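Lecture notes, part 5. Sequence design as translation. It can be helpful to think of inverse folding as translation between two languages: the language of shapes and the language of residues. The source text, in structure tokens, appears below.
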């Protein structure tokens, strides 16, 4: 029915020769291709030619060939009346995808700003008008190398890669692509140890003394001693969430999927600050920190001034490191799963982004210097009596077992039937 013809000095260009229903000789040029590719095209075309001659449905092999060929070749086959012309569709560009992703994102303004850093980078490197289907894995690799070579921190590069991968996953979900060219792109770790800083209790006490009022003292103490995210979790805290009798706070997290609710303990350092703020609250005021509801408030700038006034040097990620310092203190005393529940994330996330190695840990390991009081207390709990003196090991109470349970690497979620220190265990419902 049809045959392969060759063109060029070495026959590198192929064409399909056939006769239409009127007997006229016709040619479908395939261009430069291998013999194997030409034979595959011939097999698909013959299925189309056969259906056109017999007036039957096109065999699936012919349909697959029609779907795979480019617009120019398809238009040529349609001109002979063998198939219907393709419906021309607007080419989806990278800019179209990025605009659609941003429009569909239901996130906080700060997260949207982080997304914009990635979308701007993709536009600049790949081109806003680039057809989406033409972006290949090699383009994704060169984009990642470009942002890595620009001097960005590895954690920032990892964050942008994660966002880019999410953007192209959406493209697949929206049927704009068959497969994401970013699917196999390595992101790396988003943790950045260089920006970690442990805020000591002494520094926190000096900062609290430098605060202009109880509103600021509450913001600082809730971040440092209750591990609340600032401002997202503190701004949602209401006086009805404070259980004075049981010493607990009910915390709502807009960052957590489903806006999860958790319960955290009210530390001794935090309680008097909350009591003072509650006593001075305006009648009818339900929010613990109403000042945070002002969208124009520049918390970082004001907090930096308070830190400087206290004689401390501002550290990176001011509020995040306050929360991380709280997490570090808690994990010194309580089991990892309890601390994770109070912080509102998994133990793995805590280990990656919050828990810090302190100088006191090195002092404890080397026997040099004075370890921090809480570490020293824990050391005394772990100390074994000398076997040569004949002293007997002190019997471990359930409370001491709970302290020991939080000090090491746990192999199982629960090693014993004991709970944490009485009165500080998390609960699943608001009081």
């Amino acid at each position: 029915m049809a045959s392969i013809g060759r063109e060029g000095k070495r026959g590198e260009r192929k064409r399909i020769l056939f006769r239409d229903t009127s007997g006229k000789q016709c040619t479908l040029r395939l261009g430069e291709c291998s013999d194997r590719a030409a034979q595959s095209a011939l097999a698909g075309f013959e299925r189309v030619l056969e259906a056109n001659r017999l007036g039957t449905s096109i065999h699936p092999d012919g349909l697959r060939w029609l779907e795979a060929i480019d617009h120019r070749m398809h238009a040529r086959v349609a001109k002979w009346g063998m198939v219907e012309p393709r419906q021309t569709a607007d080419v989806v560009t990278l800019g179209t995808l990025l605009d659609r992703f941003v429009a569909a994102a239901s996130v906080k303004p700060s997260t949207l700003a982080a997304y914009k850093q990635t979308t701007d980078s993709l536009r600049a490197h790949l081109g806003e008008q680039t057809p989406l289907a033409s972006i290949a894995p090699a383009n994704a690799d060169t984009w990642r190398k470009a942002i890595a070579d620009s001097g960005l921190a590895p954690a920032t590069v990892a964050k942008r890669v994660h966002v880019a991968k999410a953007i192209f996953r959406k493209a697949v979900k929206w049927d704009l692509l068959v497969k994401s060219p970013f699917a196999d792109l390595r992101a790396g770790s988003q943790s950045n140890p260089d920006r970690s800083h442990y805020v000591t209790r002494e520094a926190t006490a000096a900062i609290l003394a430098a605060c202009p009022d109880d509103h600021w003292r509450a913001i600082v103490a809730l971040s440092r001693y209750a591990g609340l995210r600032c401002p997202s979790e503190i701004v949602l805290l209401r006086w009805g969430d404070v259980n004075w009798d049981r010493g607990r706070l009910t915390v709502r997290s807009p960052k957590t999927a489903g806006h999860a609710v958790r319960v955290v303990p009210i530390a001794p350092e935090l309680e008097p600050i909350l009591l003072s703020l509650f006593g001075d609250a305006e009648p009818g005021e339900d929010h613990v920190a109403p000042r945070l509801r002002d969208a124009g408030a520049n918390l970082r700038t004001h907090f930096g001034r308070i830190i400087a006034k206290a004689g401390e040097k501002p550290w990176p990620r001011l509020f995040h490191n306050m929360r991380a310092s709280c997490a570090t203190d808690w994990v010194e005393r309580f089991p990892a799963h309890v601390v994770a529940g109070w912080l509102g994330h998994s133990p793995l996330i805590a280990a990656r982004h919050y828990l810090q190695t302190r100088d006191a840990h090195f002092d404890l390991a080397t026997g040099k210097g004075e370890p921090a009081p809480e570490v020293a207390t824990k050391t005394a709990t772990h100390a074994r009596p000398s076997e040569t003196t004949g002293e007997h090991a002190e019997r471990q109470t359930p409370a001491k077992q709970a302290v020991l349970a939080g000090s090491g690497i746990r192999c199982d979620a629960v090693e014993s039937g004991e709970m944490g220190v009485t009165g500080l265990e998390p609960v699943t419902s608001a009081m």
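The translated text above is only one of many valid answers, since several sequences can fold into similar shapes. The CA atoms of residues 44 and 65 lie 5 Å apart.
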